[in-house]
Amino acid sequence: MEKKANATVYSYPGQRHAFSRHNGKHYNAAAAHLANGRTNEFLNRQLPCLLDVPSETTSSRAIVQLQSTAKEQE
């Protein structure tokens, strides 16, 4: 993926799987905030007409919003 011009790969050193799961065993608030912010920025850039999600909303809520919008358009 790192060689693809249209892909950005982020690494979160020292973090384990599910580091952004609230109350999870490996939760890290700072890393989760950074990752969720990057996800929201990506979704807002790629799908601006489908997203109306405040930046503080988690990426999982953004995905739910996208799924709901897609179903409404079918």
From TrEMBL:
One of its GO terms (molecular function) is hydrolase activity. Gene3D superfamilies: alpha/beta hydrolase. Pfam families: DLH. Residues 2-45 form the Dienelactone hydrolase domain. This is Dienelactone hydrolase family protein. InterPro entries: AB_hydrolase_fold (IPR029058), Dienelactn_hydro (IPR002925). Keywords: Hydrolase, Transferase. The keyword Manganese does not apply. It comes from the Bacteria. The keyword Lipid biosynthesis does not apply.
